[in-house]
Design goal:
Layout: H1 3-64, H2 66-77, E1 86-93, H3 96-101, H4 104-114, H5 116-144, H6 153-166, E2 175-183, E3 190-198, H7 199-228, H8 232-241, E4 259-263, E5 278-282, H9 283-289
Parallel strand pairs: 1-2
Antiparallel strand pairs: 2-3, 4-5
Helix pairs in contact: 1-6, 2-5, 2-6, 4-7
């Protein structure tokens, strides 16, 4: 046989093998795929069966476990107040200047002043929850000593997991999230600055604000009291004592001015309505002086 015939037959045989291989690989792949389908299906069914088994076991334990039944009764006997962990307050500024000027602490003061009743309620609820939670946890400790499923590790683990999940976790405190934002009119970009304040910080600030308000009201009442002491009789007594002349410029009614009785130390600064703190001033000097007071005596 000639060399050319031999090479031709070898080439033909190789081409045939390639054709066979080309059909064989897809067939093998398809068979593996068919075999893989029932295998994965069996695994899924087994997993589903295991999940259902554990769910049924959980339900059995819920109805059989003395600890869980007692815990359920205990939970029903407590009525913790509803408090959120964080209350958010946002101030939208109309200009960049207002945004830069407004401090978060100042906005907190505004929030506190505008939400007095809310803070009072939150304080009442937080105090109630804290007190009740102490008693509740003491009862929980007693339940931990009740018998468990000592004979079954799986049942014991499931029971413990259910016990931990069923323990109530009341909110015992709260925070205020204070946010100030500004949105640019053209680009619509929004910038924020924010800070979170704890319950202790809120109450501390509220006490300070309340004290300031009380002092402000006290001073207001004191000013009203002092002004009420300025009677016509006392006013005339001061004018006569000062010879109906301004004690700063010396002008009198003859000079075309109106005479006033002035508090040397202004009532707004704690001045008293008494002769030693009163003097005659003309309307121009009185207007110029306003509530100025020099503790060194240059008044």
């Amino acid at each position: 046989m000639e060399l050319i015939d031999i090479l031709s037959r070898v080439a033909a045989g190789g081409f045939g093998l390639l054709i066979i291989a080309g059909f064989a690989f897809p067939v093998l792949f398809f068979l593996c795929f068919l075999i893989g389908i029932p295998i994965s299906s069996i695994k899924e069914k087994r997993a589903e069966k295991e999940i259902k088994r554990k769910e049924c076991l959980k339900e059995d334990i819920k109805h059989e476990s003395q600890r869980l039944l007692k815990l359920q009764e205990l939970n029903h006997s407590y009525n913790f107040k509803d408090i959120k962990a964080t209350y958010e307050f946002t101030k939208s500024c109309v200009s960049r200047q207002e945004f830069n000027r407004l401090k978060l602490a100042d906005f907190l003061d505004i929030v506190i002043l505008e939400n007095k009743s809310m803070i009072t309620r939150l304080e009442k609820y937080a105090a109630f929850n804290q007190k009740e939670n102490v008693n509740y946890l003491a009862e929980i400790d007693k339940l931990r000593n009740l018998p468990t499923y000592e004979s079954s590790t799986e049942r014991k683990e499931i029971e413990e997991s259910l016990f931990q999940e069923s323990i109530l976790k009341p909110q015992l405190t709260y925070n205020f999230l204070i946010k100030v934002k500004y949105t640019t009119p053209k680009k619509k970009d929004t910038v924020y600055k924010k800070a979170e304040y704890t319950r202790e910080q809120i109450i501390s600030r509220q006490v300070t604000i309340t004290k300031a308000e009380i002092e402000k009201e006290r001073q207001k009442a004191q000013r009203e009291k002092e002004r009420a002491l300025m009677t016509d009789k006392l006013r005339m007594e001061v004018l006569r004592r000062d010879n109906f002349r301004c004690q700063i410029c010396g002008a009198s009614q003859a000079d075309g001015v109106k005479l006033h009785v002035d508090h040397i130390k202004p009532v707004s600064k704690g001045g008293k309505t008494e002769l030693s703190n009163l003097r005659t001033l003309c309307d121009r000097c009185n207007l110029g002086k306003r509530d100025y007071y020099d503790s060194n005596g240059n008044n």
